[in-house]
Specification:
This protein folds into two domains: 5-124, Beta Polymerase, domain 2 (2-Layer Sandwich), CATH 3.30.460.10; 137-278. It is built from twelve helices and six strands. The chain has helices at residues 5-21, 33-36, 59-69, 81-86, 110-119, 137-159, 165-169, 173-192, 198-208, 214-226, 233-240, 255-278, and strands at 28-32, 47-53, 74-80, 94-98, 101-106, 121-124.
Length: 280
């Protein structure tokens, strides 16, 4: 059993499709992400998976499986048992499912290995702890520190340009949750060596960052718990009304004011996280 009936249904559908297309192909299936970290939100969370095969499967076969699966929010990576023993550093690319499609050249990072080892939910195959999974806390910390600039700093820079896709998206609730909790999760990992969910990261931020930032963190928590902020134009437009309705639901008077704090908090959290890593 998984943490939610909707996850059970998605997993059952996936295994049915995969087993029909290639019996015996999926030897292990594990959940990571929000489903494994006790933070699954049925309306806004993806179901993140690690599918394990004996050998690298044909890309055409995986493409057919995910085409038959359709638009289920089932996203993850295909690895072999040997990949799990070796770790990500020299694997290169691996097939990844995202947004209902298969990317044959997806990137992999140590977060997947460490989440699986520490929190993975078993849907098929032996349980984590019953097989070898690579683990290297120093490599996890180094990857996390690099990701602060390689992904998050670049994203914040794009979101700071008002007339740009991320500049517009950052006016909405989805980007507020994504950015505020995203940089906070990396800060948490560098401080503790552990992994946490979006909600856990926001609570961590309330504990370690000055009160100046509590409003934007609480706004991200509110949106996360409300389970309505999605990466779509419709969600963006609907969410704008939260600033002006009666009673006003947002902690901010305007989306522009909120975006300012989201980006400023992200900047400070990135700097603080780098300082934690440098002091190790």
């Amino acid at each position: 059993m998984t943490p939610h009936a909707k996850i059970d249904a998605i997993v059952e559908t996936y295994l049915s499709v995969a087993d029909a297309a290639a019996p015996g192909l999926i030897e292990g299936l594990y959940l990571e992400g929000s489903a494994a970290l006790d933070d699954y939100r049925p309306d806004t969370s993806d179901v993140d998976f690690v599918a394990v095969t004996a050998a690298a499967p044909p890309i055409e076969l995986l493409e057919r499986i995910h085409a038959d699966l359709g638009a289920h929010p089932f996203e993850g990576v295909y690895l072999t048992w040997d990949d799990l023993r070796r770790g990500p550093s020299d694997l290169g690319v691996r097939p990844c499912a995202h947004a209902g499609k298969l990317n044959p050249r997806g990137g992999v990072g140590p977060i997947t290995w460490h989440t699986l080892a520490r929190h993975g939910v078993t849907c098929r195959g032996p349980k984590p702890g019953e097989f070898d999974i690579w683990s290297d806390p120093a490599a996890l910390a180094a990857w996390t520190d690099d990701n602060l600039d390689r992904y998050w700093r670049r994203l914040v820079t794009r979101a700071a340009r008002p007339i740009s896709p991320w500049g517009l998206a950052s006016l909405g609730g989805y980007a507020t949750v994504w950015i505020v909790t995203g940089v906070s999760r990396l800060h948490y990992t560098l401080v503790t060596g552990e992994l946490t969910s979006k909600t856990g990261a926001a609570r961590h931020a309330l504990e370690v960052f000055p009160e100046r930032w509590h409003r934007v963190v609480n706004e991200a928590l509110r949106l996360r718990e409300d389970d309505s902020a999605q990466p779509s134009l419709g969600s963006l437009v609907a969410g704008l009304g939260e600033h002006f309705g009666t009673p006003r639901r947002s902690l901010y008077g305007s989306p522009f004011e909120r975006r300012r704090d989201v980006l400023a908090f992200a900047d400070q959290a990135i700097i603080a996280a780098h300082e934690v890593y440098a002091a190790r």
